[in-house]
Fold this sequence. Notes:
InterPro entries: Cyclin-like_sf. The chain is mainly α. It has one domain. It has helices at 3-6, 9-23, 29-34, 39-58, 62-74. The chain is elongated and about 55 Å long.
Amino acid sequence: MDLILMHPPHLIALPCLYIATVYRAKDAIAWFEELRVDMNVVMKNISMEILDFYENHRLMTDERINMAFNKLAFNP
Length: 76
């Protein structure tokens, strides 16, 4: 996840707010439109990348992480 290298912080914060409004079933479209940002970039691209990040890391269990660390310990 290299969002912090590709986008300024305010363009990362806006999709987080957008995801929260969708999750809480709040209608904030008018508020986001007043910000005059490219909604395709902010809401679709960045939001999807954030959600994909969390979906991929949800699959990483402690057991899988420990197995990976154990493999690293045996290979100098």
